[in-house]
Amino acid sequence: MEYRGLNIDRLEEMVGLWNREIGPDFPIRKDLFKQNSFDDCNVFIEGSLIAVNQENQVIGFVVAKKWQDEIDVGISKETGWIQLLLVDRNYRNQGIGKKLLQHAESKLKESGIDHIWLGKDTWHYFPGIPAQYGELAKWFEKRGYIHSTKEYDLDCHFTDNEIEVPLLDGVEHSLLKLEEKDEFLSFMHRCFPGRWEYEAIQYFQKGGQGREFVVLKKDNRIIGFCRINDSKSPVIAQNVYWAPLYQQELGGIGPLGIETNERKHGYGLFIVEAAVSYLHKRDIRSMLIDWTGLVKFYNKLGFEVCKSYDSYYKKI
Q1: pLDDT surpasses 90 at 51
Q2: Which domain holds residue 240?
């Protein structure tokens, strides 16, 4: 048994291990794994590790992250993440998972991290431990991790019948135009600093042209947004990660946000309806909303829970 540093030369082996272990629930693609676990500048190489057997085959790995990007969006530099910890079922109960976790935790602590989240990282896979992996949750609880919240993915399959584009007096929606980029990023910085702002900045850095953002305007001023994703988007977005589970193309909806002083007018539901209509016009019928606790809100539009997660953190 040996432990080695994270190495992209092991990409195919790591993807193969993932799909053997959790692929039926969460089928991973090489380009998605590369995007999230190698290309993200916040991957903490020192805290990440690969376990190999005597035949030099990958039998486990941990990917740790901490904030390292030069962009300042207010994300805490004291926060660390365990993006993924996976061990081949044939090698479990031998202390491999414990060794991988201890390595990640100790290196994160040495680098100034004072608390760790399971998932929820930049370019994350999961907002917590998938609910069907209850034994894994117990394993982490024994190692000091504390349950925080429940999170959900919801999906809906719409018919081929034409969806009417919603209208509401006093506001209008449209797809973001590239020339509105600066105004939009200013809006995000003012109203939604942090992760959502960071994802919007990265979207444009990756070549985004605006078609992934529905914006809500009042008096020609942006007061809200809703992101939409599909197979033509410049990045593989979180709400289309598990598209291989769907027979037809999957479209993603979210996040969405309305300026604080413009809330309580029904604008949130309105912009989600608009997002659905835009995806429907692209001949997308299956749609998914990821990482939310607003189940009853989305139920109003026909979305139902399809996956559940338990959020965990640990102070170190």
Answers
A1: yes
A2: 155-308
Residues 7 and 113 both lie in one domain: yes
- 160 and 249 assigned to the same domain: yes
> In this structure, are 109 and 208 located in the same domain?
no
Q: Select from 125, 100, 105, 130 the least CA-distant residue to 115.
A: 105
Instruction: Give domain status of residue 63, yes or no.
Output: yes
Are 213 and 161 within one domain? yes
Residue 164 clears pLDDT 90, i.e. is over it: no
Q: Has residue 150 been placed in a domain?
A: no
Residue 69 pLDDT grade (very low, low, confident, very high; cuts 50, 70, 90): very high
- In the predicted model, what is the mean pLDDT of residues 215-240? 98
CA 245/CA 240 separation, integer angstroms: 10
pTM for this model (two decimals): 0.96
Question: Do the beta carbons of residue 315 and residue 114 sit within 8 Å?
Answer: yes
CA dihedral 209, 297, 283, 214 (to 10 degrees): -20
Distance CA 316, CA 306 (A): 33
Give the dihedral sign, CA 305/281/258/256. Answer: positive
Q: Residue by residue, what is the 3-state secondary structure of 150-216?
A: EEEEEEEECCCCCCCCCCECCEEEEECCHHHHHHHHHHHHHHCCCHHHHHHHHHHHCCCCCCCEEEE
Same domain, residue pair 120 and 160: no
How far apart, in whole angstroms, are the C-alpha atoms of residue 242 and residue 26? Answer: 6
Per-residue pLDDT of 283-302, as tens digits, reads 999 999 999 999 999 999 99
Together in a domain, 53 and 177 = no
Q: Distance between CA 311 and CA 316 in Å, rounded? A: 17
Report the distance separating Cα 174 and Cα 87, nearest Å.
46
Q: Of 143, 209, 154, 175, which is closest to residue 282 (Cα–Cα)?
A: 175
Indicate if 82 and 163 belong to the same structural domain.
Answer: no
